[in-house]
Structure formats: C-alpha cells, structure tokens
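Supplementary Methods, section 5.1.

A reviewer requested that the exact input to the structure prediction be made available. We therefore reproduce it here, unchanged from the version used in the analyses.
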Amino acid sequence: MDLLSRHRKLQNEMRLQASAAWIESKFVFTDELGKYLSARTVYNNFKKAMSDIGTPDIRFHDLRHSYAVAALTSGDNVKNVQENMGHHTAAFTLDQYGHISERMRLESANKMDKFIQGVKSM
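The structure derived from this sequence is encoded token-by-token as follows.
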C-alpha cells in the first residue's frame, strides 16, 4: 500500500506538469500524460524487474497462472477466481486449473479421513 501511495503522489505530480495535456483515466499506471502504458513498456519494465530480483525468465502472462494457482490453493472460491481472471464460466477456470482442484480434493479427503479417525477414537 505504501508503494501505491507513493506512486499516486508521483502520478499527481505528472498530472500537474502535464496540465491541460493530461488525459484523465482510471488507470493506476500511466505514462507522463495519463495515457495507458504500451505493451512494450510493460514488457520491458517487467523483464527488468524480474532480472533485478534474480527470478528465472518468466513470461508476464505467467503471473495470471500464478495468481489462479495461489488463489485456488489458498481456498478462494472458484467463482471469485473466475471473475478475477475474466473467464466466462467457473467450469472454464476449473478446466484450466483442474490439476489444482485435484490436489485440493485429495487434501480434503485426507482431512475428512483424519476427522473420522478422531471421531472413531472417542
């Protein structure tokens, strides 16, 4: 949140400098005139950030996959993940990330087995 607050202040400074040339938008990240960032700019900055922190060479799109896997693994509702990913149906989300739901089913079965074993020992 601190980084976003600092970014907002920087963006407000750019807005003041651009004056009437500023294009008002709802974008969080913009160029110096308020316009959306080009795909090339996003790509170059992403690759530089990944290199700076020493991560393996990944594609920008891999972030979507990482988000979906983390959300589903943490127990987020598939409808929430579907909407956040922009998929038309939860079925599509599950088709794409079914390997995660399989692991979650196994974990759920193991938890239920542990619960049943606990009840039987009472």
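The chain has a mean pLDDT of 90. These observations are discussed further in the main text.
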